[in-house]
Amino acid sequence: MVDCQCHFNQRAFCGILSGEFKFCSSSMCFSSLYEEKCPFTRDYNSIKATLQNIDDYDKTCIETALHGVNQMILGEWGNNMACQIVLVTDGSVGVGPLSLKGSLANLHQRTASNNFPVPFSFPAKLHIVCITPPTDPCYQKSKPLYQKLIDLSGYDGSISVPDQLSEAGVTTLFQKLAENIYTSFNGTLKCGNLKSKIMLYPAPVHHTKVTDFDCQTYNVSDTIEVLGFIPVTDIGSPMAVSRHLILHAINNAKEPAAADAEIDLTNDEDMVDEGKTPSFCVLLHGALKVENMAALVSLADNWFGFIYSWADTKKKSNLMLTLLVPGPDSVPWLGNLNNLGCAEQFEQCGSFPIRPTEKRSYSQNGVVWIRPSGLQSDIQKILRHARKLPEKTQQFYKELNRLRKAAISLGFLELLLALATIFEQECLSLPGNVHPDCAVQLHHAANLLKKTQSQDAKFVITPYVANYNNL
């Protein structure tokens, strides 16, 4: 994030907002408004190029920038992807009611329509970089406000300033920042007597599970052990804390072999060609992909996860790790995960879970809302399709019926009326240059959501067919 306010007749300082998932980054600048300078990309040269074309604007408004961050991340990745957010400024928090001090002072007066963007709607660490001398009086006054902003985010962030205000000092600062926040998780994946060094991207963070009478923090162990294998269809769509990409790590150090040593399928320093190096990750990935299975793994004491093959395109697939909610009953239809065993141990073992009588789409997944931000993300997705009607008519009604059925299944009928109200408000706020079908479809969907028949899970809301030639 780039602060484009110029203070003390100095040139505005430039930086980058970085949201990381699968090595993607994005940049934006902010003032009283925010502007996305570069969308999420793996082409870092394009990000560098945008930093050369940033102008100075009117004022510093950090709250506006944080609202922009929420929109960018939710629009691109949703609310489950862990991100790193780097705010680059000159140490000022702005002046007046739109300053950071003014924003933090009236948090208790905020309403749902005017909510503060922090904590974010997704897991994120906020890092604030102030390009200013450490002894600057403005920075000294701003530092407590920056720290309060980081505390509100709910994750460990950082405040950084260069040792000396020079090109070399700033370069060193960002090098240290990159080493601290973009380091991967390094561990060992183990299955029986096979093991392999792995890296996880993004690095998993600790998870705190709060119950009525207890609060416990869980950390992922350095050794992730495979406990067994289960068909992907039996797993379904359980609640998840986060998802991570698994990569094979290069082992540069050789350990002395023992007589009863485990088979370590990692790189040998004498092997130059990495493509010919044996890797348990590659073996596991291929097996899971071909058999359509997932590996149940132990992350820590009483904390489990699943490793599976996931394809983002038709030609490429990745080995992924999903962290479940801590506890043995994180997948209710499987029961206590500590009690799972081999099918051969039971005399009668049918398919599980019970198959529905009606044929379901292969792409139909269950809807799970762990946090309020998950529901908000689904509603925003529907509204994004609504603003692109009639091109997105099919997607709009598909997501609407998906959300409606989930609400009916949970007994959350108030959501149907709330959606109808949102659609009506959206009709009133549409600009004049939109296609007339946009308002027609929104009004049609709102009317059907208010009717009793919409509370039937088997009822499907279909598009309204309008003939504009007769208008």
What does this structure look like?
This protein is α/β, with parallel strands linked by helices and 471 residues long. Helix content is 29%, strand content 21%. It has helices spanning 44-50, 62-76, 100-105, 137-153, 167-181, 232-235, 280-291, 372-386, 393-409, 414-428, 436-450; strands spanning 2-3, 25-30, 34-41, 83-89, 124-130, 158-160, 185-191, 194-201, 207-210, 215-218, 223-231, 240-248, 263-264, 293-300, 303-311, 317-324. The protein has a seven-stranded mixed beta barrel. A three-stranded mixed beta sheet has the order 1-2-3. Strands 4-5-6 form a three-stranded parallel beta sheet, with helices on both faces. Helix 8 packs antiparallel against helix 9 (393-409) and helix 10 (414-428) runs antiparallel to helix 11. The protein is globular. The two termini are 48 Å apart.
Draw up the topology in text.
Blueprint: E1 2-3, E2 25-30, E3 34-41, H1 44-50, H2 62-76, E4 83-89, H3 100-105, E5 124-130, H4 137-153, E6 158-160, H5 167-181, E7 185-191, E8 194-201, E9 207-210, E10 215-218, E11 223-231, H6 232-235, E12 240-248, E13 263-264, H7 280-291, E14 293-300, E15 303-311, E16 317-324, H8 372-386, H9 393-409, H10 414-428, H11 436-450
Parallel strand pairs: 1-2, 4-5, 5-6, 7-11, 8-13
Antiparallel strand pairs: 2-3, 7-8, 8-12, 9-10, 11-14, 12-16, 14-15, 15-16
Helix pairs in contact: 8-9, 10-11
Overall residue-averaged pLDDT value: 80
Broad structural category: alpha/beta
H and E string: EEEHHEHEHEHEEEEEHEEHEEEHHHH
Question: How would you sum up the global shape?
Answer: globular
Q: Give the proportion of residues in helices.
A: 25-40%
Number of helices: 11
Low-pLDDT windows of residues? 2-22, 252-263, 266-272
Over all CA atoms, what is the radius of gyration? 26 Å
> What can be said about the biggest beta sheet?
7 strands, mixed, barrel
Quaternary organisation: single chain
